[in-house]
Fold these 4 entries.
Entry 1:
Amino acid sequence: MNNQVTIAYIDIGCTALSMVACLLICILGIVSPIYRKYPSKIIVWISYLFIFLGIFIYIDQAIVIINHNHQNEYKELHKLTDFFLGVTIIIISNQFILFLNEVKICIYNPFQATSSSVFLFLLFLQTLLTLVLIIIPLVFYNYITQYSQLASYINFGSFLICLIFYFAILSLLYRNKTLQSRRLFEFKRDFVRQQAYWLFTMLLINFAFSFYNLNANENDDSNIFKIALSLEGLFYSIFHLIQPYSYHKLLSLLFRSCQNQSDIQAIENIEYGINEDNQNQMMPIYEKLLKTQINELVKGLVKAVLATLNMQFEHHMKEFEKKRTYTFKFHLSELDESRIEFTETDDIRDSIILVNTYHPNSFTTLLKSNHFTKNLLEYTLELQYNQKAFEKTKESMGRSGAFFFFSQNNKLIIKTIEKSEIKDFLDGRIVSYFNYINSHQKSLIAKIYGIFKIKLMAYKTQYLVLMENTFEQLKQLDYEFVVYDLKGSTVNRTSQSNESVQKDNNFKQSSHNPIYLPKEISQQIKIQLQDDCTFLRNIGYMDYSLLLGICTENVQQKETQNYRLVINEEKNKLFSFSIIDYLQRFNQQKKSEQCFKRSLKFKKKKDLSCRSPEPYCDRFINFINSIIV
């Protein structure tokens, strides 16, 4: 018994070290922008789980010490804490499965790897799992021993799934290695290997503990395994804290005066996106990976769009042709990435681009009517000309993981979009769209110039829209301007001061509210916006925004054929108006979102952004009438 008490004290000390180490990662999650991204966000989340595990181990071993003097008086409580140890281990093991899924996403679909919505969904799954693992034993408390054995079997299953998943990722990586540049493949390989070092250490400890739990006698206490388990959080933390970025960030935070100022500056450059050295040793490897592959992938997508547009301009197509498929071959050297053979036996394959372009004739006609020639398109989307634009693509990522590519001359935007939105638009609404846009030359709806489905190299299929850049004329002024994304809603419509695009509540508190325009122009813009919103309502769309740009520097009169750009000379302000993000129907997902938000914000139902098309349109029009004077 004295031996067990001694081990319990050792276990408590190890647990304290582990919790301190995990707490350091949690601090990084609070202060570091990079640790709020994928997959570091999951790393922080697992650290919280290890802290909970440490709490249960601490209680469990404290009971061992107390029982030494009270003759098993707390036996039932000890059994309960043992069970919760098993539950926490299962949650951590299942989190490893979800983490591996994010590793797969990072190497296969880098746009989704930046999505915060995916992480929230994973947390939702973890919450459900936690509830199941806690509620069941409370209901069937008398069978807690048998349930602990079931928990061990669940953990074995998690271990097996992790192994299978990891080797599937390796297979995916090596099967497609010759479709990527050597540098990108090496980043992916190093990233996947890096995860393996700590992942399998954690899983083996969990596996061993569950195996002991399954075969232990009632009076036995797994002291040795609990020491290993208490050190698990420490092992986990060490693997991540020894990364150059991590320990430099912690040193700069805790001991800033002792840090080399050049190291602090290098970290700040990485965090604010102004570090142009892709090989910076302090940058986390997954940041290097995402930066490199997003750059390569976007170049491939732009190349595919340009090649498809050239075909559309050259080929005679049927007037109502719905879809046409093209296949292109290219070498990675065409994307300014070196193609180096890996071994003499490697079969270096050409990269294939498969493109489906929808309603090619109608979109080509729309491009021509807006003064786009084949030469202008080639100049706008030419790879060498857009080098700086490619570097900025990752900075243009949205919360959903969608990317925005803005051509260097500010004429066109390429944006990824969900498959469901494309399908809804093509199923019966696109004809109405063409009819409306062609008959309303002064419409403020941002024009779509093409819809594409592209399968490129070793990446997931991407759905893209080619759109006009409604800020083209404003950006030609070479002056700073403020951008607002306005929906007419107040709930969760406030941007942080460091965000480039402001929202409704920011606008209401700004000096730009209301917008003063000459009376005749003000009335015409209101009528046009009302017509546009009515059209979107009639085809079942909602959740669109008014994209408002305001420039107050050296304003001069600009000639324009529509209301995209208007001026108030008295106030020395220039305004740009357009309606964007309008391909969202009020589907089941949006209905569920509305129901959920109403349950949380029941006092502000009318102010919720998510509403059905008709009330959304009415509120949007009322909002427009209130801010334009």
Entry 2:
Amino acid sequence: MSARRGGTLAAALLVLVVVSLAVNLVIAGIERGSLRRQVQADNGHAIALIARTLRDDLARVRGDAIILSRTVVAEQMLQDGGPALRQRAERLLHAMADARGDYSQLRFIDAGGREVVRVDSRARVVEVVPPEQLQDKSQRPYVHAVAKMSAGQVYISRIDLNIEHGQIVEPQEPTLRVGAPVFSGDGQRLGMVMINVDGRHLLQRFVVDAQQAHGSVWLVDAAGNWLHGPDASRDWRFAIPGARRAGMDTDFPGAWAVMRAHKQGQSRGAFGLLTFDQLAAAGTGLVQPDSAFGLRVVALAPDPTLASIMFDRAHMVGYALTLPALLLLAAWLAHLRVRLSGVEAEVAANSRLLKDIFDHSRLSMKVKDLQGRIVRANDAAGELLGRSPDQLIGQTIDAVATEATAATIGQHDREVIDSGEVTTYEEQVEYLGGNFTLLTTRFPVTDEHDRVVGVGAMSLDITSRIRMEQWLRVAKDQAEAANTAKAAFLANMSHELRTPLNSIIGISELLLEQAEEEDDDPLTVESLHRVVGAGRHLLTLINDILDISRIDAGRVELVLEPILVSTLAESALSTLQPLAVANGNRLSMVVAADPGVVAIDAVRMRQVLINLLGNAIKFTRDGEITLRLERDVDTLRIAVTDTGIGMTPEQMERIFTPFEQADRSITRRFGGSGLGLAISRQLVQLMGGWIAVESEPGRGSTFTVSIPVGAFEAPSRDPGPAAPDEPSRDSLVLVADDDEDARRLLIGALERHGLPVITACSGAEALQQVRSQRPAVMLLDILLGDMSGWDVLAALRADPLYANLPVILCTVTDPDHRTAALGVVEHMTKPVDRDQLVRLVKRFVRSGPQSNVLVVDDDDHYREQLAMVLRRAGCRVRMAANGQQALMHMEQEPPDLVLLDLVMPVMDGLEVIGAMQGHPLLAHVQVVLVTAADVPQHTVQKLNESAVMLVSKAEVGLDCIARRARDLLDRVESETRDAGTRG
């Protein structure tokens, strides 16, 4: 056994060493590639930085040469040359040399090649050369080169060593000469400007930038001569007489061949890793204005080898650490091999266990070959098939099943064989053992090459469970039918229940008002109060039960319509304000993030708000109730917080159950049916949201509603021509109802508040009254005698003259999806809240003509929102998308007020105001400038002088803008009346 272990250990160690060396070779290759890429990337960045710095310096010098050549001083000095001009020229060159710092000489040279003015700079000390020391440069190559140039061209020399009086200046001064010709105004060549740039400054910056590169970095000229590199003794040899030349072509001929073939790039070869860039191609010295001179920047780094990487210090340390690990791993593998024999024995035991499970399982298990013959079956399968397992071996299912069962099973087996997938079917089978419902899972049986060689099947007898499900399904259908019948009965009874309640509550309220006005017996007044309260309570119970039944029956359909959330919330608060005052509570609203206009079912959302606020008011005494609105992208969040009695965790678990309240004591103290919160939760869930509660006994509660909403996208369209003029409406209110008692109740409620009323008892009469009397608003019942209220609404909306008539539905029927489609202002279910009805009617009844407002804004969304809010405030609104369309509308019909955007296409707001002030019919029209832009102070002052009100979109909401517009219209109307009275 010991010798066996030793041999296993040696073999394992040899294999591991070979694998380790192979892995290290792969890793070294990867590291070499990564190192190459890193070096080339770093050198590429460094060469690009050096080249960019040199180009910037050359561009600066070239620009200075062009500027000097075009100065009046240069032209006059080269033409005249008097003392005064010389002083000006010397000051100009002195200032240029002092400002730049790296210009060693600046000169004006005349057409003959003689220096006229020269300034020298040494160690930032600038000196003007006296005239007697000026030299003749007519034989210098750069003078000949510049003398051949046209206006606007610039000469840039190669970088070489400065030569004075025929000798190289020591210490060496690398010099770059830049020159430009000077011409007179009539095109006569006068001379040239020549700038000697001290190359040491260029080379110093080159040395600093070159430190970022790997390997060696050189600066060479177009011919490959070394200008600056890591070996200073080889620099500038081409410029030193008698010195042996040194350059790229002599030291690195392979790299020089690559550089001559390309202007820039990177290459790898026997010379190493090469990175280079050429500032410009070598030329004749005649360089055009936008060219650079011939100069190359070269970086050369050694190419890493596998040997250098594998035998570096880090890898050697790795080898030293890996060897013990390899020894341990080899010992562990040897140990595993010894244990393998034990594992094989364990596998054999598991195989026997699986056989026992197969034989004794209560699941029917069978294995069949590709021809459908049973090759293995357990006892449970024998019980189902009606034969012992031994008798089933070699038989097909045809021998123990009916023809239909055999066909079904054969089809399912073939599906597994063809697809190789696991399938599960519920099967009705008929065997010799009886009729069964089986849940059968089939799986492919495969060989060592994963080829399908048979089918395995496991069947569970679910006959008794299927019979139970059938019984439960019948019971469920019966329960749903009973629930549907209940919902249908309650829905059909809504008219029969609400109609007498409408009369009871309405007549009781009239009697109560008369009794209070005539100071009747207090007992009579108190009795009438109780009758009205009982009727209202009964109406609430009926409405809640009907809502629950409709939701349970799935008969509630959501109707999405654009609605201003803040307006909806204010309406709910206004409705419940009297109840809050009666309990000594203060109602308030906080808008954390203005939700704006959203698409939502306004009727159902208002019902949820009324339920939550009503609960908060009922359970709070002398406290505060806060409604908080917030919108986060596409989610609307509403929170109702009170300072009432609060709830325990056990109570919070029951409050959303129908007909349940926190506990019995709550019901006795505060009353209620326990349906409000249940209805609210179901409505919120129908809207796709959720409702939650947080509470603490004695510290109040917070109910939070979260609903996904879609932003109201106003249709993008051209305002087009103005609609036909609407007939002017007076203060009449039309009540259309075929029930005489209902008409009398509505007339009484409205006339007590000084509102003149006319009536109609049929649909035809209602249409005739609208056309003849032109009411301000119509109260319409749906169930009329000759036609339905929907037919009346459709006829009105089809007539352009009466399409915008405000209509309030007062009916015993529930809200319908057609209310939004036909532009109904409000749907009030009888018996109506008389105070709410009067407040709603007064919004549309005015003593004077309806105000005409023009909204001008290129933002379709904002324009539609603002128009909707103004219409709700009782204004007639027209719209325009730009200033030009606005002026066309105003010339057709001057408005009472213009809400005008500042920044618009075609014609902005200030241009519109200017055009209005120049028009005799529009100069008096009031203007409110509504803008999101920052308006300069001088423009604000100008607008104030023109009596134009300025409103910022970012600072106020739509409701605030509408209120300011309404106040302005009322003030103008009052001033007009006062002027008429004085006249």
Entry 3:
Amino acid sequence: MENSIEFAYQDLRGRSFHGANLRGADFSYCDIRGADFSETTLIGANFSHAKAGLGNYQNLLLIAVALILSGICGFAAAFSGVIATDFIYFAVQEGLKFTFVAGGIALVTLFVFCVLSNYQALEVALGASAVVGAVAIAIAAISAIDGVIAGSVAGVLVAVNVAFGLVMAVSFTMTIILTRTLGVIIAIFAVIVGGIGGVALGALITNNDNAFVSAISVGICTASTGTFLGSYLARQVFKNEEKFLFFRTIAVNLASIRGTSFINANLTNSNFQQSVLKHCDFSNATLTHTNFHLAQKLDCARVGNTILANPKVRELLVKKRGVKQLYIGCNIKGGNLAGADLSEANFTEADISEATFVDAILERANFTKAQAINTNFQHARLTAACLEAWNIDSTTQLEEVICDYVFLLNNQNERRPSSGVFAPGEFTKLFQVFINTVDLIFQNGLDLQALYSALVDVKAANQDTQLAIRSIENKGDGVVVVKVEVTEEANKTKIHSDFTQSYQVALQAIEAKYQAQLQSKDEQIELYRQHQADLKNLMQMIVAPASKSEIPGKLVVLKIGDTDELSGSIPVTLQISNEGATPSVECTARLPVAPQLEILYSQWQSAYYRTLLSSARLEIPEMQTTNISRYDYLQECEASAQRFKQYLNHWLNNSESFRVIKEKLLEQLNPSETIRVILQTENRTLLKLPFQQWTFFDTYRNAELAIYTAAYNKIEAPSIRNNRVKILAILGDSTGIDVNQDRRILEQLPNSEVTFLVEPLRKQVNDELWQQPWDILFFAGHSYTKQEIGQININKNETLSIGQLKNALQKAIQQGLKLAIFNSCDGLGLALNLVELNIPQMIVMREPVPDKVAQEFLKNFLTKFSNGKTLYISVREAREKLQGLENEYPTTTWLPVIFQNPSQIPPLWNTD
């Protein structure tokens, strides 16, 4: 398989791409006749102006089959006519009564079949012919001794002629699919064969000249009649007559054999605009948001088990014009109708879930009882549309809908708004649905104090469920509806019962309190103040906090599992919670396998290595001498980084199966919040990737990423807290680098106590970790990873692995070690080894780091962290500040990374 995904203008006839991952591939203007894309991932692929269908060999074979079938059919028609005529002739000449009956029954039955097939459905014609034949046989059996024999003979004649007539129709349909001219040629060929057959049969079965002439004449006539019947049926098929759909299905299926195959392919968001799709096979393909605008010959493609099976829907997707058309009950699930003109179209009870109507004209359209789950109406024009009982949910996208007013009942009843037009954003607010709610109905008004008290009680009784008041609506006549939002897995019946009981208890308590406290004016004033305080607390539960300081931090955990070999995708679980609380939101999705991601990262990694000089805190192997300047390497590194970043964001932002997680993040997170994002996975490839380059972090400026493995244990922190931040700083082998700058940075930290070990022996490091509690472990010097084992050079002659310090490090963690900083190269190996000890937090460099970059990051991080900023914000700001060095050291903002034990909350600097 080619490494490139660019195939534009290429001749790909007969090529096999079976099972490949061709996400985003460009096949525009390609010749893909006979190509095999079965079970291929083609999400976002471009097939515009491509030419699909049969290869030349398959075309010739199809013509040959049609000729053979039509010849057989012409001969069969002639055979039936000659035999029937011969029976009648000899009945007259020789007085053979049963032959007359047989011939007559055959001709009458065939006549009935031909007439009815013209005016009725095929099954009606067949049924009526069978009835006429059966009645005739019964009459013959009563009136003639040999009637049963005559009926049997007639039945055989009728069956042969009808069967071959149907085959003839299929044959003509197959050829008309190729060209209509070829259909005419096939018809003429059938008549010629039938005529020759009639002559031959007449010569064989009769010795009488008159009988011979009659047989030939009738043979030619019946052959012509059968041929014209087949031609007529074929023409009706191409008019999309529902009564002849059977013929069309058979003919298209046969003609699509060995054509371009998209069987079981994932064509989500693919583009077939103005492509030729004759003889394609889309059976069981995923066609979500697939663009068929102005595609040609799609009616000649095999479309089993897709929304294209309905000719009306197929035509709509191709033309994108359905003004005043009826699509009642149609399945248009996942259809791409972006920009379509659907004014006054009727979608009553249609399934338009997951479809896209972006920029569509839907004015005066009828969506009564339509299924519109996860449907995209962004920028659609919905003025005067009828939305009676349509089924939408929170995934239905109604942002920036262009709408002056709508009707909630058919026949333009229940206008909203009742007068005037919607203000900007009002339509979305009116129809945004939250399915995870509990509706509390109060018949005699609402006491807010009792509601607040009940909410507190219910929250205490259902601590595993997040509760929030979504809205309070006054319905009139004393009826008030309170909508309480709950999590998806919540027991809504129990919560409703708890609310009802708690509200009644609180209401009775308040009434008793009123009676006791209304005895004096002062008590009444105090009661009023208390009531207002309760009301204020309730409003705070309804309305989001206004100031940034009041907004609690959020924790976002993305758990990425192992690749599912059957589906070829990766399971992902999202959890969102307030800091220190249990997850309040959880959902699952899938990401497609993206092998190109690792390739692009490796290309960037190689280019990055070539930009490094001897200032890196790692012994970089000498590169082969070339004539390429360092400037060229810098340009190559920037270009490869850009390619990786584009692919990473395409993977995360455009993967349809991952969309639910992206939307949940946008729905649940506020850009002004402080957000910790932890990516958990056992996939070592994914752990090393710089997911900070996801555009999500551009939107959420107070968010930063940490990584960790899927397995972890919680470490109980000791109750004794140091008055000062205690730091054990190991300054290891400094050959070729300046670790004294690191020392000067550490010495200037406020409210800290730093112990330095300069090029220590192993025993010194071990003893210090055992003897006293530390808050931070710091290392500066050379480090590297070999066979997934991290090593640090503690002096010029000695290296240490995490395993060699396991007992000492475990002791330090038990005594309160909160953070390890390895301001050295290639720290992922060190971090992954420390993970096994469940250290709370680590900061490492994912790749070799230039000395100047390491010092700049350390200075900026510790300055911000020691001044009270959170660990995550300090890392992000220090990391992003490295951009000022990227003209000399490209992509250094990718290097720092946090390893975070999900069970721990990051510490703040002790400023007491």
Entry 4:
Amino acid sequence: MIRKYLTSVRRGLVLAALALVSWLDLLLELVGFCILCVGLVFAYTLALEGTRPRAALTRRLAGRWCGIEVESPYRPAPPAPERERDGWYRDGNSLFKRSWFLRWTKRFEWISDDPATGRDLGWQLWNPFAGLVLVPAVLLTGPVALRVYGRWTRWWLGPRPARSGDGWIKTRLKALGFQLGLVGLSVAQLAMAVPTLLMLVGLVPLFPTLVIAGRSVTDTLRREAKNWTGVRIDRPYLPEPPFPVPRADGMYQRRRQLYDTPWWPARLDRYRWVIGDRATWRDMAAAVVNTVVLALLAVPTAVLVFFGFQGLLALWVWRPIARWTDTAWSTTHWFSMIGLPEATTHWQALLLTPVAVAAFVAGLVATPQLARLGAQFAKLLLGPTEASRLEQRVARIKQTRTDASVAQAAEMRRIERDLHDGVQSRLVAMGMKLGAVEALIDSDPAEAKRLAAELRQTSSETLTELRLLVRGIHPPVLSERGLSDAVRAMALDSPLRASVNGVVPRLEQPAEACAYFAVSELLGNAAKHGEARRVSIELGYDDGLLRIEVTDDGKGGANAARGSGIRGIERRLGVFDGTFALTSPLGGPTKAIMEIPCQLDPDASSPRTSTSSGTA
């Protein structure tokens, strides 16, 4: 018994000493974060990865010494980037000649987005205090203190089940953080707008460069407004001018002026582009207006929350510490700013506690609504106008026209090849057999009958093959019953356990065919490459926009750079000015969201084409 107690004390002292090292890890990560702020992403990534071995050692010791097994909670590391056939590395629409930048960016996203990383940081902050408490606890209770410390370690460093949602306080604290984040981005936008305007007075050639740099900050505000509040703010900018193309004589023409190099024409086109774009001046006006309005929405709530939190600290943390240490650094006069007396006793602190709690709660109550209101106000100036929407649509149509022509030509070649190699060959063989039947019908009737039976079988097979070919061009169920029933029929034929939710009305037939074959491609990828067992398909149509969400429980890791299927979907949707968003982390799940602008089918009122029709 004594030996067991001494062993527990020795192990507790070792764990306490190891806990103090956590502050050194936290300091290392703080240095890495400071280096990250100047653009060196790899430093913060190395700092986070360098501290994980200490956490892994604590997990092993908790299982060996405390009897509490702690599993590793980290997500699997991302795979190394794969080079494409043309020698480039692709990430979305960006190409890289070498993989090091892409590799470090992926590792930074992997380790910073992992929830276990945040728990590691919290554990490193509070674990030294737990280590200091462990020393007297293990001297008093022995193995009991070790088991409590093991449970503490498992709570911080072990895997946790996914939570369905945040609590009331956490949700509103996050909303307050979103408000302050929008204010900070507006201030950054204003900081970029001021020198940009000064360039119009002095260095005019640098004006387009600063405008582009300012747009990156504004795009960050748009993106985070969508991520934080759900308010979508589209980019309103006119399409970038194309690079100058030389004439037949090698000169570059801009209006009536010829240039030997494309530098001046390109510079003048870009200057005219940013000057003539109304969104440039709307961004600068928004930098001033949004900063003021968002600050007016966020500052009162932040002041109330800070006042209430600081008041609670003053009443129940700083006041007792000042009383026990006989010092005068208590801040209970915090309440004198609103005309309330200073709290010197516990009873007075109890009377002032509801005031602090009321201020804290009052500041948090409306933060989600205020954050969304601020994002909606920012959308007024940062969102696109009808003119910019039309220009963007025209530019997108020009970009997708070539892809549509190439895809149509490839489809025509496929149909021609299938007809030539399949149906045409069978028809030629049937013609030859018919000639043989004519020659044998008088001299050898039995052989003629046998050939006629083979002809009947061949005609049946040809008809089946022709039906399959037609179904590949446009499924009959899609024409007769619409997209909802066609997708349900496809789900029944799929080897996966597929569920289809939602009903959409009859839409334009080209849009229905585009959506049908895109869903078919996603189901095929989930079964063939994703090793999925279940798949969920959500259909919806609202205000001229068809939305389809396909989610499977496969292994994830889908990437457009490693296959042509996803690129084919993007090209198919691009013809209809649609969008395709894919989320596929390693380990799954894979979620694909497709949005296609389309209109209702004006001929959908007939019983044959109605989805509520009794005909199949």
